[in-house]
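Q: For a teaching session next week I want to show students how multiple molecules come together into a single three-dimensional assembly. I've collected the sequence lines for a complex. Could you give me the predicted structure tokens for the whole thing so I can convert them for display?
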Amino acid sequence: MNDSDRYLVERDGPPDPTIARLERLLATKRYRPKRPARRRPSASLLAPLAAAAIVLATSAVCSSLAPDDGAAPAKRLPAPTSALPLAQESAPPPEPSPLAEPTEPVAHSAPASEEALPVSDEPIAPPPVVAEEALVDG
Amino acid sequence: MSANGRAPAVTVRRTFLGAASNAAPEPAPRPAAATPARGRDDADVERARNGDRVAFQRLWERHAALVHAVLISMVPSQEAEDLMQDVAVSAIGAIDRLRRRERFSAWLCTIARNVGRDALKRRRRAARESELEDPAVERPSDTDALAEEILGLVRRLPEAYREPLVLRLVLGLSGPEIARRTSRTAGSVRVNLCKGMKMLRDELERGGML
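A: Of course. Below is the structure for the complete assembly, covering every listed component.
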């Protein structure tokens, strides 16, 4: 086996010029795995956060603008915490009556967001009749 | 430049000739993962046979270059890229029938050869039907064009010489490594490499490339 064949078969000994150049040229045809497209982490993180923020904001606006249809206040969604101080300032809860039903505290304290945005002078959540009678009598 | 885009290849051919006569030859760098460890293969083959897709993915990553080299010894590089997927799908479907896990790379080469032969048949059939020659290959660069031209010469050699030459010149595997990974004898690989290289030199000279 001559030097050229030894380099060809064993990759040993002095490189044959033609073989070495063919190696370098054809090495460009070597397989290179395609890398998957790089995803921008900021976009992938911000998209769900933005969607969640939109949903929260929409639900807050809808609950604050919903008309008072006389539904039971206890069944309404809890008000956002940011509206709580305003609600306490604008409509302080009345003194509890000793004759009031156990449902009375719920009727006055639940719709804090509606109390924060009064649209008329009428009481937003009138107490039960029993509670009014108790106050008049007292 | 002619309509068939051959002019840049001729320009590069002159460069190739000039370099061949002046510069001192240096061996090409060897690929980093030329010889994957057989122990890892055996374990992953066993897992892949039991349906572990991650193990098959590891096997594929270790042997994809070998599969690609086998394919480009038969079809143009661009087509070989597409056929890689076919080889992977065939291998996943048939790996439970692989009996000797130590022959995984040789088995994969056999699948690649079969996929390549099928592609050649389809090409010939399509060429007969449309009376067209080989589909035009996009030539992104002059070096690429020359490399593809030389690979075209290799593909015209007898079949027994093509694959060892491509594994040697493209992947940089030595004769014994080719023998081990294709489950052929070292003697037959040596003979095929030497005879194939002699024929390739003749073709290069005939084409004015040496």
